[in-house]
Amino acid sequence: MVVAGEDDRLGAGIEAVKRTVDAFDLACSRFRDDSELSALNRAGGRPIRVSALLLEAVAAGVRAAELTDGDVDPTLGEALIALGYDRDFDLGLDGRGATGAAPATRRLAFTSIVGWRTIRIDIEAATVRLGQGVSLDLGATAKALAADHAAAAAADAADCGVLVSLGGDIATAGLAPQEGWRVRVTDDHRDGVDAPGQWITIHSGGLATSSTAARRWRSGGTTVHHLLDPASRLPASGGWRTVSVAAATCLDANIASTAAVVRGQRAPAWLQSLRLPSRLVSDEGLASHVAGWPSAGDDLAPAAALGRVIA
Questions:
Q1: What is the pLDDT of residue 102?
Q2: How confident is the model at residue 85 (pLDDT cuts 50, 70, 90)?
Q3: Dihedrals φ, ψ of 225, to 5°?
Q4: pLDDT in tens, 112-168
Q5: What pLDDT, on the 0 to 100 scale, is given for residue 218?
Q6: Is 93 left (phi over 0), alpha (psi -120 to 50) or beta?
Q7: Distance, CA of 114 to chain centre
Q8: What Cα–Cα distance (Å) separates residue 183 from each residue in 31, 180, 292?
Q9: Percentage with pLDDT > 70 across the chain
Q10: How far apart are CA 229 and CA 256, in angstroms?
Q11: For every residue of 158-217, which 3-state class applies, written as one string?
């Protein structure tokens, strides 16, 4: 979704977003055999020369792991595949995981796989090397990074303020309308306005929502979701079904929202310490607000929306 501050300039913004999304898909998709990421995952530990875009995306994934002590880990590709997430979600995943056992019984199969600390990025040579047996999945960061890039490109092309939403990852660029951007926050970005959620208004920065309710499927007789706890390489079960975070960029918002789902009850204090306005919804549907997240219908103040770049 693309919204422009000037309606007559929307077309230029949409074209810029399409070009950005296409470039990210070719560089970062785990579901395309011809993507750069797929080639990197097939490299068997050899250094591979990559584009500037994939280099940035991999660096963003490593940064996410560093900032969250590994709670957001880009090296969960094989674990997601074992659970059946081996194709685009819209193509259907039910029954595609390993059969004959619930996911919990397969936990030990992944304990020997080394993780994000084995990734080696050489900026000067523009190469990336993965540890033996490591498979990248950049889903926790690449889409948010794409939203940031797309918003910047759209604002430049349209010469006005824009809001871009890529699957619920929201980025803004340029000058917002005087009334701000009105956003509906729900468990799933595809939900209608009648679904449980909250209207807020943002003026700048990025907004991301991570949810265990949005991408679920059956694997080995058990319902699973796509947000994995790197410690177990199984779906996170920390007590939050949805976490929405506002930050200076969509990328930082997504890093924080994903880590919060994994961290469970430790998440509110962590988000508060970072001064990142957040809305956390428990498995029972109870919403909690921290660090200046507004009441229903209220503005997220510009200073708060910019939050703090996680560092």
A1: 42
A2: low
A3: -140, 175
A4: 445 899 999 999 999 999 998 888 989 879 999 999 999 999 999 999 999 999 988
A5: 54
A6: alpha
A7: 22
A8: 30, 10, 17
A9: 75
A10: 14
A11: HCCCEEEEECCEEEEECCCCCCCEEEEEECCCCCCCCCCEEEEEECCCEEEEEECCCCEE
DSSP for residue 42: T
Selected from 1.10.540.10, 3.40.50.150, 2.102.10.10, 3.10.520.10, the CATH number assigned to the domain covering 161-306 reads 3.10.520.10
Query: Which residue would you say has higher pLDDT here, 239 or 220?
Result: 239
**pLDDT score, position 311:** 53
CA angle 52–159–148, rounded 5-degree value: 35
Place of tokens 């759209």: 154
Structure tokens of 158?
A: 């349209």
- Hey, where are the domains in the chain? 161-306
Q: What is the pTM of this model?
A: 0.83
Pairing of strands 206-211, 216-219: unpaired
Task: Give the C-alpha separation, 150 to 117, whole Å.
Answer: 29
Q: Which of 48-52, 134-138, 303-307 has the lowest mean pLDDT?
A: 303-307
Q: Helix, strand, coil shares of the chain as percentages rounded to 5? A: 35, 20, 40
What's the token pair of residue 45? Answer: 């530990």
Q: Which DSSP string do the residues of 80-143 spell out, in sequence order?
A: HHHTT--S-GGG--TT-S-SSS-GGGGGGGGTT---GGG-EEETTTTEEEPPTT-----TTTHH
